[in-house]
Amino acid sequence: MADILYEDALQLLQAIGSNTAPADVIMAFMNDCGLSTHRQGNNIWCLNRACDTTKPTILLYAHYNALAAETEACRLMNGELWGQGLNYGGGSLVALMAAFRYYYHKRDLPYNLCFCAAEERESHGVPRLPVIQGQTLKPDFAIVGEPTDMQMAIAEMGHLVLDCVANGKAGHAGRSEGDNAIYHALRDINWFATYEFNKCAAFMPPIRMAVLQVNAGGANDTTPAECSFTVDVYYNTCYSIDEILATIVLNTRCGISLREDISRPAELSRVHPFVQAGLSIGLETCVSPTSSACGWLQVPALKIGPGDPACTRCADERIAVLEIRRAINIYIKLLERSLSNLINKPERAA
User: Fold this and answer.
1) Together in a domain, 216 and 307
2) What residue numbers bound the domain in which 272 lies?
3) Are 26 and 12 within 8 A, CB to CB?
4) Distances 259 to 168, 203, 230, 242, 289 between C-alpha atoms, Å
5) Is 209 within a domain?
6) Membrane-spanning residues where (predicted)?
7) Is the same domain home to 193 and 293?
8) Which of 48, 165, 246, 314 lies at 20 to 30 Å from 99 by C-alpha?
9) Is 350 a domain residue?
10) Total count of domains within the chain
């Protein structure tokens, strides 16, 4: 069965990376596999066949890039699939789905499994949890599929996005009139690029701030009256959000608004049954310098997935097909071994 799951996963990954309507592709594939699917917008989920509401639920969560195929269809070269979103999310999605299919018909599980394929679009913000029979799913644990080279990310950074606006005054540039908002923005942008927060966590990277979008001006000869830019802040447990914002406001002049979609720093104890299960099958732990759904799920969660984290969002994004096979086997073993740990050591599940 493992070979069939791998071949199906590879076929699905290629289809996702080459289709401009990946949600339709994912749902059709799951239905063809005999899975009973649910859909809300472009988020798709499925519960195991023998779901029992009296049992705890483990969420298998992955996302896909809805815009990947609009850039360029994926291609297979030298044992690697190339295309936007295939390493960042796509590989984890098809591998987690394969593991879910492996357990879908089993009736002796002490927990429910819910697989969720969530759409990721910058304009949509953070995807939300599945709604089943009018109730939002509240999992007891989650495996979040993102590229970690199949290391267990037991801690990760939080993530904030700030919308900033520097104001000036319009005028005719040829007569040196007006007050150029770009120059005001540059002072603040330089501060974001160079400022270092003093406190550092022993096991997490320091806070990092990056200006990733800038927009100003609209006509020749006109001094821009406004310059807007966005700042991504990756933060650890040393500072609260209020403390970070207070420091920024104290040192900058621009107007600042915090977006609602916030991912908080996440940690998972090394004695948690899933971490212990991973260690018992030879997996290593790591700390992720990025953020994921672990930061907003508000349940214990483990980030682990195939692919090189450094290859994420790169122009030459790719994933080796053999990594998909390896990930499927590890996910299946991780769930199997965790099953034993949850039964034998339930007090460590919190």
Assistant:
1) no
2) 1-156+265-344
3) yes
4) 24, 27, 10, 14, 20
5) yes
6) none
7) no
8) 314
9) no
10) 2
Residue type, 158: G
Question: Is residue 39 in some structural domain?
Answer: yes
Quote the CA–CA distance of 172 and 168 in Å, as a whole number. 13
- The 3-class secondary structure across 104-140, one letter per residue, is HCCCCCCCEEEEEEEEECHHHCCCCCCEECCEECCCC
90 CB contacts (<8 Å, ≥6 apart)? 13, 16, 17, 64, 65, 68, 83, 319
pLDDT in tens, the chain (350 residues): 666 787 888 888 887 776 678 889 999 999 999 999 988 888 899 999 998 888 899 999 998 876 554 556 678 888 888 887 788 888 999 999 999 999 999 988 889 999 999 887 543 444 556 555 556 678 899 999 999 999 999 999 999 999 999 999 999 888 889 999 999 999 999 999 999 999 888 788 999 999 999 999 988 889 999 999 999 999 999 999 999 999 999 999 999 999 988 999 999 999 999 999 999 999 999 999 999 989 888 889 999 999 988 887 777 888 888 999 999 999 999 999 987 665 554 443 44
CB-hemisphere CA count at 13 Å for 330? 27
Do 33 and 169 fall into the same domain? no
Can you read off the two tokens belonging to residue 154?
């037991």
